[in-house]
Amino acid sequence: MIEIDLEKEGVRGVNSRLHSLPKDTNERHWLIKNPMGQHAIACGLDAPLTVEIGGHAGFYCGGMNKQAEILVHGHVGPGVAENMMSGIVRVAGNASQSAGATGNGGLLVIKGDAASRCGISMKGIDIVVGGSVGHMSAFMAQRGHLVVCGDAGEALGDSIYEARLYVRGKVDNLGADCIEKKMTDHHLAKLARLLDKAEIKANPKDFRRFGSARKLYNFNIDHADAY
Amino acid sequence: MCGIVGLYLKNPKLQPKLGQLFKPMLIEMTSRGPDSAGVAIYRNPAKKGFTKFSLAHDDAKFGWKKLAAGLKAHTKKQVSVEQIGNHAIVTTNAKEEAVTTWLKAHHPQVRIVGSGQAIEIFKETGLPEKVYEKFDLTKAKGSHIIGHTRMATESAVTTAGSHPFATGADLCLVHNGSLSNHNRLRDNLKREGLEFQTENDTEVAAAYMTWKLRQGASLKETLEAGIKDLDGFYTFCVGTHDGFAVVRDPIACKHAVLAETDDWVAMATEFRAIAHLPGADKAKIWEPEPQTIYNWGGH
Fold it and tell me: How many pairs of residues across A and B have Cβ atoms under 8 Å apart?
């Protein structure tokens, strides 16, 4: 494992070193020391690396990730794994708001809680949260899965399109066009695979499924007065 | 965009280091607010019956000793003064109203930035590091401190428009966000007899709290009422004579993080401001919930 000291090299220095690695590099395992809550650590990676962050990270950690596995040994600030394309981001602690926002692919695992707007506008990312999520989570979610082992705050799945939401605990309330749906064997199997990949032990049968009622796709003339 | 930071020491042994511990917290928030900075520090409580006034004047050579002598002659009470930068801490056992009335009549250019038994407020335009140095805060000892780095959005970049804003004896407020109903509220509060030094939205929040507290509401009740009556985006950090409180608006749009150890409680807009504190990596760290009041110390 190769160690880099963020305090000495700065965020730009650390990210430049990781970006400049050739795709077939043998230097695949990195540890970033002293993250000190700085922003944009390990952003824009595009190689099959394992990057460990030895502490708490700030905003946008692991954003735009492709291929890499990023392990944060602490908490993260807003926008972790924002717009991730592929790969894995694992957070040992809690995440602030907008975790996994607009993510296209890959897996984001948050062992602790995530704050508001977790998975906002998600477009294919899978997000597994060991704890609870805050209000407006999966707002305008378009594709992918959000698994919440704890509770979900207000307006879960507001204006949701096609993402699938699984919640084990209580849901404060559902947002516009989000409804509870039947959990079939197909969904149980998919959820089991997600939990397994996230390395979180939970029984899929304890979860409820939510998704889109698909009423917002088209303008409804009968509701014209409401606009 | 602004940065707010607060540090409340649970372990009295750390009190001699308050200014030193807080310096990197404030400076780390420079990128969120490079135009002005300010702090409210709670230290050296005045003797019973005495009040400390934090006063400011734009002229760094203003004659504070002459002001103190004038105040003493007028009130026939004890008055002492300590100049710190372009601010001065005037301590007196004269009645608060008598002091403010006299100041307004004889020194209208002097701004009263705060008052109470323990609070001292210093604020100025310029980079946070320069402001901190100007008021010699690195060596400051005390029990708790809250600070603000400002990126002005709602009103002009002036010393008077910097935070913290006083909200009553030993109480003050820093704010990250913007209020949308501050003009209407200001008019209403003016009718209730409150006075304003600026067009700043946060000053309205401070005046609102002053008004509520004067009516006999507790700090918690005041903050609860504020959640209903203040419209807009806000994370507030409020200092009290022996504690501090944090509250966010119902949407919790503005960033905030809290951290707690056996020795201290810290709040900041971003964790990187807290990361420098001893034991921060092992602290309990969480994001404050919307419209929830968190408070330490005090009642």
Answer: 50
Question: pTM score > 0.90 for this model?
Answer: yes
List pLDDT tens digits, range A46-82.
999 999 999 999 999 999 999 999 999 999 999 999 9
State the best of A34, A39, A41, A96 to mutate against chain B, taking most chain B CBs within 10 Å: A96
Q: Which helix (H) or strand (E) holds A136?
A: none
The alpha-carbon radius of gyration of chain A (Å, integer) is 18
Look up the ipTM and state it. 0.89
A216 neighbors A176 (Cβ within 8 angstroms):
yes
Cα B133 from Cα B18, distance rounded (Å) = 14
Distance CA B18, CA B10 (A): 11
Distance CA B134, CA B86 (A): 9
Whether residue B272 and residue A38 make contact (CB cut-off 8 A), yes or no, is: yes
CA distance B237 to B239: 7
d(CA A62, CA A77): 11
Chain A residues with CB within 8 Å of chain B CB:
36-39, 55-56, 58-59, 74-75, 77-78, 93-94, 96-97, 113, 115-116, 134-135
